[in-house]
Amino acid sequence: MEGTWWSLLPFLLIIPLAVWLKELLPGLVVGLLVGAFCLEGSVIGAIERAVSAIVHALVDDEHVKVALFLYLFGSLIGMIQITGGIKGLVERLSGRIRTKRGLLFFVWLTVPVTFFMPMFRIMLLGPVMKAVLRQFRVDRRRMAYMIDVSTEPIIVLLPAATAFVGFMTSVVDGALVQNGIRQSAYDLFLRSLPYNLFAIIALAIGLLTTVLNIRIGRPPGKKGEGTINELHGLGLRKELSLIAGEPLHLFVPLALLIVLTFAFFAYDGWRRGADSWLAAFSQADATWAMLLALFVTLFVSILFYVWRGQSLPELIYHFFAGGNELMAPIGMLVLVWAVSGVAGELGFAAYVSSTFATWLPGPFVPASVFLAGSFLSYFIGSSWGTWGMLMPLGVALAHATGAPLDVTIGAVFASGTFGAFASPLGDTTITTAAMMDMDLLSYAKYKLRISLICAGLSLLGYALLPLWIG
Length: 470
Fold this sequence. Notes:
The chain is mainly α. It has one domain. It has 25 helices and no strands. The longest helix has 30 residues, at 440-469.
């Protein structure tokens, strides 16, 4: 469908409604229904189209993998909690980490073993960091930000063994083929990494605030700290207070998960025809490999816990209780996917592209692509969606105007990174807020201030880079 301003309506409704109601879910439902109505022109047709969009979001293979991974990871965390694993680690940390800065450095030190995908890091670190917040008196939002900034901004800069490499290379390859450019997609992807300015700047600011122990933003008020999640968690906290801490019950399943993740990465890559270890990690379906590793880890962990004297009925209960803790973010992600699908049918990407990027001269193509992509990604909350929709346009503009191709590709990747990191619709924002028991919109607003500074510096960089290179 040819894009018109109507394609903006779902997103123009979602954000104001979310801010007004202080809840994202109603805005997503209204945005989905309005978008569906724009497609169908009738109330009944809109309801049918909205439900159909939700069903399509649920049956998409990649979406199912992400949702199942989230639920099962929550289940694993639930079992680790009730067996005393997280409590044991907190007790161990309390004797070794004595300062806020030491705790923040601990977040960064875990990167080498948790870099596969953002969700992996968030769900691994979230429960542990949340458990030690009161002891070290660290602002909950600051800790969540440190976890967030050490996920996607790092992962998009790694050239192999992440959930992103295969997809990022494939969208570059598709854009090159579409424009008749005969260059290596992976080579261009590697050359574009230094030009993902948003990721680099966000990462630098995150590290700087850790080293200098700088407070980010204003101190939190009393609102938003005692949310409904706190009330619902009282029973679980009372139960956890009665169990004995046992670090082994955390280390064994997580070590097994990490080892198996590497193993299934290699297995899936070799199965797809890779001829080297690096190629195997790059070609593997990362989400599938991690889902397989998680499934095996859950099975072995249950056997391990039973062998250690844990009650099987108690483990099963907390298996489902832990997974159900993440049903709210999973539900919101399904609605985000549905809204993005409806907006795509309305021509949202085409409208944004034609409005923001088609009239600028070559030296300003990277900056205009970054600006258009940041706008797009903020409203859809998806880096992958932004890259898929904007990369063909960015490559076409660079090819036609003589703009630096690697800088332009880097700008496209940076724009998607901005939206996934800053948007209240982003899966990392939703999941981090849920794992840390924070109000979603309050946390998104907190991150947006910092993200806009990084985006402004990035935009300036993209305006100057073509002049400097050329």
